[in-house]
Amino acid sequence: MSVPGPGSAPRTGAAAPRLAVWAPSGLGEVRPGDDLAALVGDLLAQDASASGDPLAEGDVVVVTSKVVSKAEGRVVAADDREQAITDETVRVVASRPRPGLPPLRIVENRLGLVMAAAGVDASNTPEGTVLLLPVDPDASARALRAALRDRFGLDRLGVVVTDTTGRAWRDGLVDVAIGAAGIATADDLRGGVDAHGRPLSVTVTAVADEVASASELVRGKADGRPVAVVRGLARHVRSDDGPGARVLVRPSADDLFREGSAEAYARGVADGYREGFEEGFREGSGNEPVTH
């Protein structure tokens, strides 16, 4: 596959970049203490035998956090879900009442991720249980990658651990990377130029998140396919473990959504922000609202 570099024009006759994503079936229910690397390896070997298309250099293996959490024993009783959310919370971003239901809590969890219910999940888990996120998803990705590299004799293999989340200003859910190994999680295009020669000054593509979302389109939420393979992104796959997905978590100082608007107004903070912005615009400071 030939992929044009940042800002370069495609060469005449060059092969068009292609992306292939598939999700083998047949993993079965994962239980605490299971050897996840062996289960995933068996699944990929069976898929290769059936399709004649084995795992290859530059491929990315994607697994959901749910199966990682199950194998690592991150399972608690459903009756303890609200307490589990509290225990996993390091900061409340916003909380809203829901008639007849526990309040909706958007919080920062132990991993630094801002999510509804701290990522404590009641879907795709046995009745009466809920799942906590893995303790260290990057470490889980590194361990899985090491085992799969050894089993399949590969050098450049990526692994991404995903979870489902909402997004500020957008309806709907997407899968994002909460753990990664062997892949450049972000592609920093700053310093390059676009197709018209203009300098790129802010563009950093969240590669691992886009891999996670692409995999979800073929895995589905209720199809029993928690593992996928993404092929065609070899330029982002590396021989070492790489920085992991933690680097994609926005630092608090740069987080414009650090708390909900109702909470901010209740503390009188939002009025201060608004006055500051209005004063800046009146003085012609050139300040502009930043979106992310």
Helix content: 25-40%
> How do the helices and strands follow one another from N- to C-terminus?
EHEHEHEEEEHEEEEHEHH
The mean pLDDT is: 86
Overall geometric form: globular
The total beta strand count reads 12
Cα distance, first to last residue? Answer: 32 Å
- Rg, please? 21 Å
CATH fold label of the largest domain: 60s Ribosomal Protein L30, Chain: A
The CATH architecture of the largest domain is 2-Layer Sandwich
Work out the helix count.
7
Compute the number of structural domains.
3
Low-confidence spans: 1-10, 280-292
Structural class by sheet pairing and helices: alpha+beta
The CATH class of the largest domain is Alpha Beta
CATH superfamily of the largest domain: CofE-like
Sheet with most strands: strand arrangement: 1-12-2-8-9
Q: Describe the largest sheet.
A: 5 strands, mixed
- Percent in strands: 15-25%
SSE topology:
Blueprint lengths: L19 E3 L13 H16 L8 E5 H7 L3 E3 L3 H8 E10 L2 E9 L4 E3 L12 E3 L5 H16 L5 E10 L2 E12 L5 E2 L15 E2 L1 H13 L7 E5 L29 H6 L2 H14 L10
Parallel strand pairs: 2-8
Antiparallel strand pairs: 1-12, 2-12, 3-7, 4-5, 5-6, 8-9, 10-11
Helix pairs in contact: 1-4
Protein described:
Strand 8 and strand 9 form a beta hairpin. The protein is globular and about 60 Å long. Helix 1 (36-51) packs across helix 4 (137-152). The chain is α+β, with helices and mostly antiparallel strands. The strands form 4 sheets. The chain has a 5-stranded mixed beta sheet. The chain has 7 helices and 12 strands.
